[in-house]
Amino acid sequence: MQFVDEARFVVRAGRGGDGSVSFNREKYKPRGGPDGGRGGDGGSVIFRATEDLQTLEQYAHRNLIRADRGRHGSGNNRAGEGGGDVVVEVPVGTLIYDEQGLLADLADAGEEVVVAKGGLGGRGNSSFATSTRRAPAFRERGLPGEEREIRLELRVLSDVGLVGLPNAGKSSLLSALSAARPKVGDYPFTTLTPGLGVVDDKTYREPFVVADIPGLISGASEGRGLGNRFLRHVARARLLALVLDAAEDPEGAEGTLRAELYAAGLGDRPLITVLNKVDTLDEELRDYLRDQFPNAVQVSALTGEGVPELRDLLERRLRALSEREIAVAAVAREHRTFRPTWSGMRVEKMGEHAYEVSGEEIERLALRTDWENPEGVENFQRELERKGVVAALRRAGAAAGDEVRIGEVGFDFS
């Protein structure tokens, strides 16, 4: 399966079912009255994190994901069946964005978020019966479900991120540290997708995950090379290991790596320095590097030299990280579970004889109205008067015959 860490598509929740206009016609019940049931609510689109997926490949070519609509109500006060929800499973570590920004960060298995809420079903005519209105012959229409464009971004979750220039030997080091078997060879090659390996040893309290991050080049923070893809995956790691090729200008490589991490806002991340490929050096060069990098660990992923010591050091550093350091290292998580919507009313003059009324409650009323039913239209007009919309239009200068628009609905003012 191809590794894909970004996908974009539209999610559409189900529309609510319409209410029913019905009257009880049973024998011996001449005054059975209205018994139209309400429509069912539309289904929602829900995203859930799972450890069974490691890529967004299955969503790379999707254009639309939609939930079922609610069924219409019927007589005898029978409510319509609700539309089924659609649960979209994504890998742990997936960030969900919409047009307004970050919607949710699913960093834990089983975590879920509703990204498009289904529309409410409309009420049947039995809901409008009162002591003075015994036989209402109108109903409400169901509301449309939410629709938005979603962008998914996968960030690999790991305890340690191996950071280095292309061909620094990160994949070989991952293989030496863990049971992972990434593609490696004695030829110019760079990792194109993150690789994960679990370091599990009886001497450790808990296993930890090491990620081989795609090779970084100068200017990555500005989008060069793999650019943001590198930064996206390294941002999740609690601890960074700068892997330097000991035989190829390690001082310059370290400067490039630190500069790019700093430019990306990751300069304060806990890190250690690892000098790889020391098997190609003589003792004099090794002594020189000990002086230049006094805190670095010298290893050879090829021969295994220094790998056990590095494994122990990583485990100690991870154990020593305080809760505060872990919180700083983790990506800031946010759930926009509540989007406040202005629920008042505003009347604006759009032209010489045109007016627009906006407001959540008024717009919902217009969407719910059955415009083909005269009684439904009369009820809409009564509600406009009761809510003060008619008076507000008159104060704004509206006269009989002027065009009034509420959301997607237009009509002549009278």
UniProtKB/TrEMBL annotation:
Protein name as it appears in the record: GTPase Obg
Keyword Hydrolase: yes
Necessary cofactors: Mg(2+)
Keywords: Cytoplasm, GTP-binding, Hydrolase, Magnesium, Metal-binding, Nucleotide-binding
Location of the Obg domain: 1-157
GO BP annotations listed: ribosome biogenesis
Alphabetized Pfam families for the sequence: DUF1967, GTP1_OBG, MMR_HSR1
Species per Swiss-Prot/TrEMBL record: Rubrobacter marinus
Binding residues for Mg(2+): S171, T191
Classification via PROSITE patterns: G_OBG, OBG, OCT
Alphabetical list of SUPFAM superfamilies matching this protein: Obg GTP-binding protein C-terminal domain, Obg GTP-binding protein N-terminal domain, P-loop containing nucleoside triphosphate hydrolases
Ligand binding (GTP): 164-171, 189-193, 212-215, 276-279, 300-302
